[in-house]
Amino acid sequence: MKHFNLEDLKAEINIRGVHAKTLVNHKNTTIKNLLLKKGESIPTHQVPVDVTFFVLEGKGQITIDDESYPVKANDIVLCPPNVPMSVKADDESPLSFLNIKTPGI
């Protein structure tokens, strides 16, 4: 059992060049809190696992394959394995979201 507060976790720059806080990282799942500054984006990429995006704060756009979704707090977007995805924060708003990968990678 482990208890912590998201605000207490240290953000590090991830492989895509954005700030990320790791909540869980093991073979069953990987959960990270990604923090995009105003206008910042994660370029199109794909991973071999299911990805769930859960928006915590801000506004932006999540693109899965060829479909774009405007997102805000409490929105959820699902992405199946091996499908192109990208994320962009609005120019007027930072974007904070959980990136949940199952199984973990």
UniProtKB/TrEMBL annotation:
<feature type="domain" description="Cupin type-2">
    <location>
        <begin position="36"/>
        <end position="100"/>
    </location>
</feature>
<dbReference type="Pfam" id="PF07883">
    <property type="entry name" value="Cupin_2"/>
</dbReference>
<protein>
    <submittedName>
        <fullName>Cupin domain-containing protein</fullName>
    </submittedName>
</protein>
<dbReference type="InterPro" id="IPR013096">
    <property type="entry name" value="Cupin_2"/>
</dbReference>
<dbReference type="InterPro" id="IPR011051">
    <property type="entry name" value="RmlC_Cupin_sf"/>
</dbReference>
<dbReference type="InterPro" id="IPR014710">
    <property type="entry name" value="RmlC-like_jellyroll"/>
</dbReference>
